[in-house]
Structures are given as C-alpha cells and as structure tokens.
Amino acid sequence: AQQYENILVELRGRVGLVTLNRPKALNALNQATMNEIVAAVSDMDADPGVGAVVITGSEKAFAAGADIKEMASKGYMEMYAADWFRAWENLTRLRIPVIAAVSGFALGGGCELAMMCDFIIAGDNAKFGQPEINLGVIPGMGGSQRLTHAVGKAKAMDMILTGRFMDANEAERAGLVSRVVPAASVVEEALEAADVIASKSKPVAMVAKEAVNAAFETGLSQGVLFERRIFHSLFATEDQKEGMAAFTEKRQPEFKHR
Length: 258
Ligand code: CAA
Known about the structure:
Bound molecules: acetoacetyl-coenzyme A
Largest sheet: 6 strands, mixed
Oligomer: single chain
Structural class: alpha/beta
Number of helices: 11
Distance between the termini: 21 Å
Shape: globular
C-alpha cells in the first residue's frame, strides 16, 4: 500500500479507513494532507474491493481547520494562482459512500471536510464551528454553502458571523449529523455503518448517493424524474433480480456487484 505522511490508511474488510494523523497540529489540513486524503479516497473509490470509506481524526480533534500557519503569509495572487483548496472538489466527486466519524474539534476546514462526506457520525464530545471570521477570513472549503444547506440560514449565519461552536447535540438537532454516540465508540460505530453499506450492491449504493446529491443541484420535479429514471435502470441489473428474489424466498441477498 502507498505510504502517506499525514494520514493512516487501512482496509478493514470491505471498508477503507482514513485517519488524519497530524496530532501536534490537531490535524490541521495543510496542502499535503489535502492531497493525501484525496489520493487515498480516490484509490478506494476505484477499488472494487472497497464498498465504503470512513474518514476520522483523533479523539481530541477531527481537524481544527485549514493550516493557518501555512496560509498566513500568502498574498492574493498566490492563493488565486494555486486555486487554494480546489483539490477538495475531487473529494466531492467520488462515487463511493464516505462517512465522517467526528470526535472533538471539527472547525473551519475540519467542519467543511466533514460536510463533504455523505454523512457525519459524531462523538458526544464533538464541536463544530466555522470560526474563520476570527481570523479575518470566511470559510473557503464550502462552509458557507454546505452548512447553510445542512442547518438552514438562521444557524449558518449565527455560526459563521459569530464564530461560535455547536456541540454534538445541537448539531444533531440541527440536522448536521446523523447520529451522536459516545466519543470512544465513534469510529467503531462509523465502521459498522460503513460495513452495512459495503454489504449492499456497490453500484446501487453509488446511484443512491447520486440521487440524494441531486437534491442539492436540481429542482424537485427534475430531481424526482432523475430518481425515477435511475430506479427504472436498476431493473437491468443482476442485483435487483437477486435482491427481490431473496425477499420472495425469505433469505438474505447475495449481491454480485459488491
Ligand atoms: N492551523 C495550524 N495549526 C493549528 C490549527 C490550525 N487550524 N489549529 C491548531 N493548531 C496547532 C496550534 O497552533 C498548536 O500548535 P503549537 O503547539 O505549535 O502552538 C497545536 O495545534 C495545538 O493547538 P492549541 O494549543 O491551540 O490547542 P487548544 O486545545 O488550546 O485549542 C483549538 C484548540 C480551540 C481548536 C485551537 O487550536 C484553535 O482555535 N484552532 C484554530 C481553529 C480555527 O480557527 N480553524 C479555522 C482555520 S481557517 C480555515 O479552516 C479556512 C477554511 O475555511 C478552509
């Protein structure tokens, strides 16, 4: 397997686990870390042996943001010419389901990375925030858009304008996270969820993700049409035949395309 400097990468059965590993910087996301995460998850996306991915950090910090020290002295032309943060877009184009397992701080780019995943499972010690305003900037990895989609205008404005943090329970109430679990079991819980996903037909999981994501980019009637056409297309697959036959025969399905 490829060696990385800032992340640990493992395969647990059919689940890929990416663990951010810059403990001294609370997993601050420098450019090298960004490129490694994108490369590792892209490899998993292309690997037929991987059915889902979990991205996690440490118990203290999922990630405390983009690396402030790396950016601090840059000028406009440098940021523009490098199109700083653009590589993250690659992460949002992947087809494999990706779960964020968030313990501790998920701030700035950390919160934005979690929101680029398909869903977030939070430890009860999780703290989400977009505190960029305290640094004289605004979110730059999609936070002003994805947080607003996730929790609505009122809370997004509150968080982004004041820079305050949201704890795990508020994040769950607001719809930012799908589940809150004890901090010590957040990775285990995310791996279990990923394992369930990886036991399904991979192409069906991929189109399911595509259909949900269409809700963010299309109007309702176009989105519903998109969904229905995908639904129809699945009747050309062996896994639909197997899934429905297994139900009728009262047994567990054995999906071919896992
Ligand atoms: N970038 C670079 N280094 C960071 C960092 C970051 N985002 N966050 C923490 N670190 C470093 C600290 O500088 C410190 O390093 P040193 O020991 O070398 O000084 C180390 O991690 C530990 O941090 P603290 O001593 O600050 O730990 P703490 O427990 O006292 O506080 C914290 C934790 C509240 C998370 C605090 O570290 C903090 O406020 N971090 C910055 C949070 C932030 O502003 N994030 C947004 C970044 S900008 C961004 O993300 C832009 C975007 O939209 C993409």
